[in-house]
Amino acid sequence: DAGVIQSPRHEVTEMGQEVTLRCKPISGHNSLFWYRQTMMRGLELLIYFNNNVPIDDSGMPEDRFSAKMPNASFSTLKIQPSEPRDSAVYFCASSLIRNTIYFGEGSWLTVV
Amino acid sequence: QKEVEQNSGPLSVPEGAIASLNCTYSDRVSQSFFWYRQYSGKSPELIMSIYSNGDKEDGRFTAQLNKASQYVSLLIRDSQPSDSATYLCAVSLTSNQFYFGTGTSLTVIP
């Protein structure tokens, strides 16, 4: 079975550019999570969706970040404009509601 | 106050010893509890889940939960060098929010 699929795996971009991270959850899972991981702050929950509906986006750092889930098999996390402090690993994860969550391999973002 | 607290370590144990990892959480409505292992450069992977008070054993791993004390732990028996990783404690709330601790770095010395 395919796990959570994220793209791109690695991205290096210049400050001010738009970054779009993509995620395909595990088929049949109805919850999707976006996390950001840094050495300083660990794994932070940015936003999560239940049945394609954003439930809690209080972890989104600021208006430069936005996330969408247009259907059950696809989600995007967008940063516009990007800043060096956005450099981190961004993980997408999915689950059945109130069950174990499974992570994708992450998108390693470097903003220079 | 963070929802989930862990000692960041690093924790070092000799090969064959018992490694003990601890986690406390602040939200009393937390429903489910998980331990994830993360190797450097990789994504977190589930080791154990526990939902009720007491111990749960799976091979060399034992998870312990005490809801009254808001405490969950992970014991690794007969530690191996391959167990060297960062261990993340996670709790989920009734609203399906999952919160992670910052992780404890474990090194098993051959």
Task: Write up what this structure looks like.
The complex is a heterodimer of chains A (112) and B (110). Chain A is mainly beta and 112 residues long. Chain A has no helices and eleven strands. Chain A has strands at 5-7, 10-13, 19-24, 31-38, 42-50, 53-56, 65-71, 74-79, 88-95, 102-103, 107-111. In chain A, the strands form two sheets. In chain A, strands 2, 4, 5, 6, 9, 10 and 11 form a seven-stranded mixed sheet that branches. In chain A, β5 (42-50) and β6 form a beta hairpin. The radius of gyration of chain A is 13 Å and the shape is globular. Chain B has strands at 4-6, 11-14, 19-25, 32-38, 45-50, 54-58, 61-66, 71-76, 85-92, 98-100, 104-109. Chain B is 0% helix and 55% strand. Chain B is built from no helices and eleven strands.
Summarize the model shown.
The complex is a heterodimer of chains A (about 110) and B (about 110). With about 110 residues, chain A is mainly β.
Write out key terms for the chains shown:
heterodimer; A: about 110 residues; mainly beta; 7-stranded mixed β-sheet; 4-stranded antiparallel β-sheet; B: about 110 residues; 6-stranded mixed β-sheet; 11 strands
N- and C-termini, Cα separation of chain A = 36 Å
Derived structural class of chain A: mainly beta
Strand count of chain A = 11
Q: Per DSSP, what share of the residues of chain A sits in E-state strands of 2 or more residues?
A: over 45%
- Contiguous uncertain segments of 5+ residues of chain B: none
Average pLDDT reading of chain A: 93
What's the Cα radius of gyration of chain B? 13 Å
Shape of chain A: globular
Number of helices, counting only DSSP H or I runs of 4 residues or more of chain B: 0
Mean pLDDT of chain B: 91
Alpha-beta content class of chain B:
mainly beta
- Number of alpha- plus pi-helical segments of chain A: 0
> What's the number of extended β-strand segments of chain B?
11
Strand content of chain B: over 45%
Gross morphology of chain B is globular
Describe the main β-sheet of chain B briefly: 6 strands, mixed
Largest interface: A-B, 23 and 22 residues
Largest sheet of chain A: 7 strands, mixed
The SSE string of chain B, one letter per element, is EEEEEEEEEEE
Q: Low-confidence segments of chain A, ≥5 residues, pLDDT <50?
A: none
